[in-house]
Every structure is written in C-alpha cells, then in structure tokens.
C-alpha cells in the first residue's frame, strides 16, 4: 500500500515538473505558447505591468537565448576540436542570465528565492534588465534591436556593438521575432485575457 502511494506521488511530481517546464510545441508563435502555458501569460502580463517591458520583447529574448528550454546552457568548448572542455559562460535557464547578473537582480529586487529555471523569475529578470537598460543607456523598451544588444553584450560593452557583425545579425533576428510575436498576440490577446481557467 505504502509503495503504491509513493509511486503515485512520484508520478504526480513528474507530471507537475514536465507540465510546467517542458518546451512548448511551437516556440515561434506567441499565441501557441500561451495556449499551452496560460500561467506563463499571467507572469508575462505581470512583468509588463511591473517593468513596462512588452510581452513580445520578453518572448523574443527568451526565444533567442534558450528557445524556451528551462535547462539551456552554452555548449561546451572543445580542446583540439574533440575533447569536451568548460562552457564559455555561466549562462543558464530561460533567460540565459549569468551568475553575477542574476545575483545582482536578486539583491536589487529582493527576490531571494528566484531561480533561472522558473519562467516567472526569468521574465521578471528580463523586465528588470531591460528597465535598467532604458535608464542607463536611454534605450526604449520598445526597441527590440538595441535592447537585445545591451542584453547580450552588457551595459558596459553596448557602445562597441557596431564593430560586431555577429551581434548585429542576432539583434535583427530578435527584432524580427519580436515583431512577429507582437502581431500574433494582437490577434489572440482578447481571448487570453478572458480565459477563466489556468492551463499549464
């Protein structure tokens, strides 16, 4: 009897983890994402209200950084092109925040229990970061291109981005994806805001 209860408990925990953390089927479509993860929509709305960061920008940054993989990490470097070596940075989770910046975020917001594998905390981090970018670099939170450059390069290195064609191309992708999300969400936002039940 006890073994049966334990098995059921394990199955329940497994279901909750996979339901909350698995990657949405179509990460290129904002409406599809929130149709599968309605609780994510509520977190994204809360972040937009709190920090002023548009939902479409939140999604576009996560799409580029991790493609909504909660356990995403940078691929390991290789010695002699074969031997697995260390990772190039401590980036992790949905937002790919590095340890140092994540620590700063927790200290400044008081969100001491925040984790990079939780969507709720990840979008709040993006809101916090883009808000600081607006204050420090005077970049509008509606400017997905420049906001992403600051997000990827850091506030101190932002001024050098014009010499970096790779980051310019990445930022253009984020800008395009942001515009797509914006258009998509405009078509389904009414149905999302009127939904009565939370679907993970």
Short description:
With 200 residues, the chain is mainly α.
Output the keywords.
single chain; 200 residues; mainly alpha; Lysozyme; two-stranded antiparallel sheet; 8 helices; 2 strands; globular
Helices, strands, pairings?
Blueprint: H1 2-21, H2 30-36, H3 38-51, H4 55-65, E1 78-79, E2 83-84, H5 99-109, H6 119-137, H7 144-153, H8 165-193
Describe the structure.
With 200 residues, the chain is mostly helical. It has one domain: Lysozyme, CATH 1.10.530. The chain has 8 helices and 2 strands. A two-stranded antiparallel ribbon has the order 1-2. About 3% of the residues have low confidence.
CATH architecture: Orthogonal Bundle
Stated plainly, the CATH topology is called Lysozyme
- Characterize the quaternary organization of these chains: single chain
Strand order of the largest sheet: 1-2
Distance between the termini: 30 Å
CATH top level assignment: Mainly Alpha
* Average predicted local confidence, pLDDT: 87
Give the total of beta strands.
Answer: 2
Tell me, what's the shape? Answer: globular
Secondary-structure element sequence? HHHHEEHHHH
The tally of domains stands at 1
- Assess the beta-strand content as a share of residues: under 5%
Number of helices: 8
User: How many whole angstroms does the radius of gyration measure?
Assistant: 18 Å
Class from secondary-structure proportions: mainly alpha
Task: Specify the biggest β-sheet.
Answer: 2 strands, antiparallel
Helix content: 55-70%
Uncertain stretches of 5 or more adjacent residues = 14-19
């Amino acid at each position: 009897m006890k073994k049966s209860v334990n098995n059921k408990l394990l199955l329940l925990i497994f279901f909750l983890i996979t339901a909350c953390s698995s990657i949405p089927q179509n990460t290129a479509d904002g409406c599809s994402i929130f149709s599968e993860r309605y609780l994510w929509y509520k977190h994204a709305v809360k972040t937009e209200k709190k920090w002023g960061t548009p939902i479409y920008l939140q999604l576009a940054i996560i799409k580029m950084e991790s493609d909504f993989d909660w356990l995403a990490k940078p691929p390991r470097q290789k010695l002699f092109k074969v031997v697995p070596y260390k990772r190039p940075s401590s980036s992790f989770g949905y937002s790919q925040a590095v340890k140092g910046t994540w620590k700063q975020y927790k200290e400044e917001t008081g969100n001491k229990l925040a984790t990079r594998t939780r969507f709720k905390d990840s979008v709040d981090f993006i809101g916090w970061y883009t808000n600081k970018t607006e204050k420090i670099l005077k970049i509008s939170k509606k400017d997905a291109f420049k906001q992403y450059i600051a997000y990827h390069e850091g506030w101190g290195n932002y001024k050098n981005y014009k010499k970096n064609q790779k980051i310019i191309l990445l930022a253009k992708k984020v800008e395009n994806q942001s515009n797509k999300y914006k258009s998509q969400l405009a078509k389904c936002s009414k149905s999302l805001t009127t939904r009565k039940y939370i679907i993970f």
